[in-house]
Structures are given as structure tokens and as C-alpha cells.
Design brief:
- The protein contains six helices and five strands.
- The chain is of the alpha+beta class and 269 residues long.
- The protein has a five-stranded antiparallel sheet, sandwiched between helices.
- β4 and β5 form a beta hairpin.
- The radius of gyration is 41 Å and the shape is rod-shaped.
- 19% of the residues are buried.
Length: 269
């Protein structure tokens, strides 16, 4: 009992546990990775939906411009007639302008733009001979715009402008982003849980090895490490136990040699 008490008093304090720091660092790294994946997935999803919307609006614009292929001069009468023949384009707004940019047709109810100059940047670029597409997502709404020039052979005679205000597409983007964010948070929580658990288990086993080293250092070679499993720490514990067995055997031989020598010295010649 005295020996055990002496060992406990002489044992050095254990070093501060650094495994929690490593666990937190690992959690931080995984959080950054998941955040980047979340941003990439959200951006890729929006880009795919934007491309799908662009293809849809370009097809509608090309169909509209092709309907004016046999007309050399646009006016309100022939434009209105053509648009009635085309029918519903499933667009929030459709406008047709002449080559000067004046609105000849506007599908928006209650609009007073007919006969006025259209100053929308997409129409201005289309009257310059360019196909223009613009799409943005904000506030759960997907807003898309397409403008295309109307050509009579090689002569520009006007432009077609289509705009879609899509709440269903915006809701789809919002839902996908929320789902990706939820999955990322859930994965991060799982990583935090397992990282902390592994760190605590590793720390506990490492502290057990350190305590055994302190005990052996005080001369108690009979002490054994009991570690379960077949990992590196368990193998280290087995090697440590083999070492203590050899130390205990060497100590027994040393004591036997000292005892024999002392007995021989005490025996008269």
C-alpha cells in the first residue's frame, strides 16, 4: 500500500489533451469543404435552370421572328395579325418593335407602351443586331428576358422581346438550395459528433498509456495496460506489456544477484 501511495504522489501531471484541437480543426476543414460544395451545387443548379430557360425563350423568339419572314415593313396592323395567328406563347410579356424601337405590339394587359419608344436595354441591343438573353433569380422569383432582331433578308426591320416572370422556377431553385443546405448541415453535425467521439476515445486510451508509463517509471513493473481492439494503440499496449515483462524479469535477476552476492560476502571464508 505504501508503494502504491508513493507512486500516485510521484506521478507527473498528464499533458493537456490536444485531441480536441485536432477534432475541431478537422470539423473546421469539413465545414469549409461542405460550404464550398453547397455553393457549387447551388450555382450549378441555377446555371442549369438558366440554360433551360434560355433555350425555351430562344425557341419562342425564333418562332415569332420567323412568322414575320415575309413582311418587309412592320406596322401595328400586320404585327397584331401575326401575333394573333401565333397565339399564346406562355410568356408573361411579349413586345414587338419596329426598326426605330417604337412598340407595335404589347401583350401585357393595361400597357400603354404601344406607339412609344422602348428603352429596354435588351431591345436596344437586339436592334443592334444581337440576340440577347438575361436571367436572374431573386426573392424566390426567376425573371428571364430574351430579345431578338427581326430580319427581312439582310435588313433589320424590328425586334421581338419576351419576358417571363416564373415563380415556379424560382420556387424550385429555392427548394433545391434549402435541401442542399439541410443535407450539408446534417452531414456537418454527423462529422462533429463522430469527430468528438473518436477524439475522446483516442484521448482516453492515450491517457491510459501515459498513466501506465508514469507507473512503470516509479518501479512497478507488474503493471499492465488493458486496451481493447486491434489498432495501433492496442498493439502499442501489447509491446509495452512485453517490455514491462522483460524489465520485471531483469529486476528479479538483479535482486537475486544482489541477494546471492550479499550472502556470499556475509559467509566466512
Amino acid at each position: 500500500m505504501a508503494t502504491i501511495s508513493k507512486i500516485k504522489k510521484a506521478a507527473l501531471p498528464l499533458p493537456r489533451n490536444s485531441q480536441l484541437k485536432y477534432a475541431l480543426f478537422y470539423v473546421l476543414i469539413t465545414a469549409v469543404v461542405l460550404m464550398l460544395l453547397n455553393i457549387y451545387a447551388a450555382a450549378t443548379t441555377r446555371e442549369l435552370i438558366f440554360q433551360s430557360k434560355q433555350v425555351s425563350l430562344e425557341d419562342k423568339a425564333e418562332m415569332t421572328t420567323s412568322a414575320f419572314s415575309g413582311i418587309d415593313i412592320l406596322n401595328r396592323a400586320n404585327v397584331t395579325s401575326v401575333m394573333r395567328q401565333i397565339g399564346n406563347l406562355n410568356a408573361t410579356r411579349v413586345m414587338v418593335t419596329d426598326q426605330a424601337g417604337y412598340v407595335l405590339y404589347d401583350s401585357l394587359e393595361g400597357s400603354r407602351q404601344v406607339g412609344k419608344l422602348a428603352l429596354l436595354p435588351e431591345i436596344v441591343q437586339a436592334l443592334g443586331g444581337d440576340d440577347v438573353f438575361y436571367c436572374r433569380y431573386a426573392g424566390g422569383v426567376l425573371e428571364s428576358r430574351e430579345a431578338m432582331p427581326i430580319m427581312y433578308y439582310n435588313l433589320l426591320i424590328g425586334s421581338v422581346y419576351l419576358m417571363e416572370y416564373d415563380t415556379s422556377g424560382g420556387g424550385l431553385i429555392d427548394s433545391l438550395q434549402q435541401n442542399i443546405l439541410t443535407i450539408s448541415v446534417a452531414l456537418e453535425l454527423i462529422v462533429v459528433f463522430f469527430s468528438c467521439g473518436f477524439a475522446r476515445a483516442f484521448s482516453r486510451r492515450m491517457r491510459q498509456i501515459l498513466e501506465s508509463v508514469h507507473v512503470i517509471r516509479e518501479g512497478d513493473y507488474s503493471h499492465k495496460i488493458r486496451l481493447r481492439g486491434r489498432d495501433e494503440l492496442a498493439l502499442l499496449g501489447e509491446e509495452f506489456n512485453d517490455l514491462t515483462d522483460r524489465l520485471q524479469e531483469s529486476e528479479s535477476r538483479r535482486r537475486q544477484f544482489v541477494a546471492d552476492a550479499s550472502h556470499e560476502l556475509k559467509t566466512p571464508l
